[in-house]
Amino acid sequence: MAMKRAASTFLTSSSRISSSLSSASSIFNRNLHASGGKKKIVGVFYKGNEFASLNPNFVGCVEGALGIREWLESQGHEYIVTDDKEGLNSELEKHIPDLHVLISTPFHPAYVTAERIKKAKNLELLLTAGIGSDHIDLNAAAAAGLTVAEVTGSNVVSVAEDELMRILILVRNFLPGYHQAISGEWNVAGIAHRAYDLEGKTIGTVGAGRIGKLLLQRLKPFNCNLLYHDRLKIAPELEKEIGAKFEEDLDAMLPKCDVIVINTPLTDKTRGLFDKNRIAKLKKGVLIVNNARGAIMDTQAVADACSSGHIAGYSGDVWFPQPAPKDHPWRYMPNHAMTPHISGTTIDAQLRYAAGVKDMLERHFKGEDFPEQNYIVKQGELASQYR
Ligand SMILES: NC(=O)c1ccc[n+]([C@@H]2O[C@H](COP(=O)([O-])OP(=O)(O)OC[C@H]3O[C@@H](n4cnc5c(N)ncnc54)[C@H](O)[C@@H]3O)[C@@H](O)[C@H]2O)c1
């Protein structure tokens, strides 16, 4: 069993956690539970409601259930799907004590806290239908000997395309024009006084992994000045092909940018990265696109900078928490082009991440490893960028 291998390697090799007797014994217990047999699998997705039946490929919602219900049930597994994820009386909470596998999604995140992990005595595997597992307490999952994996690459094109759209929406000052169209107004000046071309502008991406690189490739024909900051440099040939310049020092890159796009995961290092001080050092009139994670920004600092005009436009689909409460400040700040969390859950993306989840479940049942790039927590260790 992959889980058995994981646990035994973990017990012998991890100096970080092996010091804790209690966590070692919890891993041992989970190892016993990870043996074959019928599993209880819980999926937490957004509700499809009246839209669920409009498209047979709409598999990402509760009703679509990733299209794996028949397959799971035909093997005798129990599959419970819900959108009810918050609080002690939620449907999710009810199943925490005896579920074996939890499938969650960043679009409607089931926050998997250390308390929930402690309560989930049978839990073996946490799968993210999509990319970004920050809704899970990854350190607690590692300490408990759990595997966390996501469908790496499944929606990167979907997000990169969406980011390009958001950049254009902000640069061209599109939304006020749309609002005029639907409200019977006609005021060209009200739009034109702050509408620009994208050509010639400096665009910097913070993070140039799968999504960041795809965005840079898509921006190339717009003849911009492209910059990127990352822990890692892009391979020289690709860097040359894209024509983007590496900026080792984030704070040296940011003030040069007319448009900043965030493309890093949410980790201990990126949480609150854009606080009041860092935002104050950005170019006045900067545009920001953030489809990465809401908590990379200081919520109030962004709202204040939009109100003062220091940030001239902010767009993204990620918030904290999600769903965003009715009084979330980003709903009311000026010059924003926010949407619910949507970019990575196009129908194409849903089909890809549903197939990826099915593949990993199949491997899990057979005791086989997953594709290496899918692991976020494996054998008690977090993936390198989360450490
Ligand atoms: N809005 C959506 O629907 C949606 C969908 C998919 C992914 N995402 C978000 O986008 C993120 C990136 O996705 P990806 O597929 O490109 O991931 P990726 O792992 O391919 O790329 C992430 C890049 O960030 C860099 N990085 C990590 N920490 C850093 C730090 N502290 N400083 C500088 N660089 C750092 C990494 O080196 C890597 O190159 C995900 O983690 C997720 O949070 C959002």
TrEMBL record:
<dbReference type="GO" id="GO:0042183">
    <property type="term" value="P:formate catabolic process"/>
</dbReference>
<feature type="binding site">
    <location>
        <position position="230"/>
    </location>
    <ligand>
        <name>NAD(+)</name>
    </ligand>
</feature>
<keyword id="KW-0560">Oxidoreductase</keyword>
<feature type="binding site">
    <location>
        <position position="317"/>
    </location>
    <ligand>
        <name>NAD(+)</name>
    </ligand>
</feature>
<dbReference type="InterPro" id="IPR029752">
    <property type="entry name" value="D-isomer_DH_CS1"/>
</dbReference>
<comment type="function">
    <text>Catalyzes the NAD(+)-dependent oxidation of formate to carbon dioxide. Involved in the cell stress response.</text>
</comment>
<dbReference type="InterPro" id="IPR036291">
    <property type="entry name" value="NAD(P)-bd_dom_sf"/>
</dbReference>
<keyword id="KW-0809">Transit peptide</keyword>
<feature type="binding site">
    <location>
        <begin position="265"/>
        <end position="269"/>
    </location>
    <ligand>
        <name>NAD(+)</name>
    </ligand>
</feature>
<dbReference type="GO" id="GO:0008863">
    <property type="term" value="F:formate dehydrogenase (NAD+) activity"/>
</dbReference>
<dbReference type="InterPro" id="IPR006140">
    <property type="entry name" value="D-isomer_DH_NAD-bd"/>
</dbReference>
<feature type="binding site">
    <location>
        <position position="131"/>
    </location>
    <ligand>
        <name>substrate</name>
    </ligand>
</feature>
<feature type="domain" description="D-isomer specific 2-hydroxyacid dehydrogenase NAD-binding">
    <location>
        <begin position="165"/>
        <end position="343"/>
    </location>
</feature>
<comment type="similarity">
    <text>Belongs to the D-isomer specific 2-hydroxyacid dehydrogenase family. FDH subfamily.</text>
</comment>
<feature type="binding site">
    <location>
        <position position="291"/>
    </location>
    <ligand>
        <name>NAD(+)</name>
    </ligand>
</feature>
<feature type="domain" description="D-isomer specific 2-hydroxyacid dehydrogenase catalytic">
    <location>
        <begin position="71"/>
        <end position="369"/>
    </location>
</feature>
<feature type="site" description="Important for catalytic activity">
    <location>
        <position position="341"/>
    </location>
</feature>
<dbReference type="GO" id="GO:0009507">
    <property type="term" value="C:chloroplast"/>
</dbReference>
<protein>
    <recommendedName>
        <fullName>Formate dehydrogenase, mitochondrial</fullName>
        <ecNumber>1.17.1.9</ecNumber>
    </recommendedName>
</protein>
<keyword id="KW-0496">Mitochondrion</keyword>
<dbReference type="GO" id="GO:0005739">
    <property type="term" value="C:mitochondrion"/>
</dbReference>
<dbReference type="InterPro" id="IPR029753">
    <property type="entry name" value="D-isomer_DH_CS"/>
</dbReference>
<feature type="binding site">
    <location>
        <position position="155"/>
    </location>
    <ligand>
        <name>substrate</name>
    </ligand>
</feature>
<comment type="subunit">
    <text>Homodimer.</text>
</comment>
<dbReference type="GO" id="GO:0016616">
    <property type="term" value="F:oxidoreductase activity, acting on the CH-OH group of donors, NAD or NADP as acceptor"/>
</dbReference>
<dbReference type="GO" id="GO:0051287">
    <property type="term" value="F:NAD binding"/>
</dbReference>
<keyword id="KW-0520">NAD</keyword>
<dbReference type="InterPro" id="IPR033689">
    <property type="entry name" value="FDH_NAD-dep"/>
</dbReference>
<feature type="binding site">
    <location>
        <begin position="210"/>
        <end position="211"/>
    </location>
    <ligand>
        <name>NAD(+)</name>
    </ligand>
</feature>
<dbReference type="InterPro" id="IPR006139">
    <property type="entry name" value="D-isomer_2_OHA_DH_cat_dom"/>
</dbReference>
<feature type="site" description="Important for catalytic activity">
    <location>
        <position position="293"/>
    </location>
</feature>
<feature type="binding site">
    <location>
        <begin position="341"/>
        <end position="344"/>
    </location>
    <ligand>
        <name>NAD(+)</name>
    </ligand>
</feature>
<dbReference type="Pfam" id="PF00389">
    <property type="entry name" value="2-Hacid_dh"/>
</dbReference>
<dbReference type="Pfam" id="PF02826">
    <property type="entry name" value="2-Hacid_dh_C"/>
</dbReference>
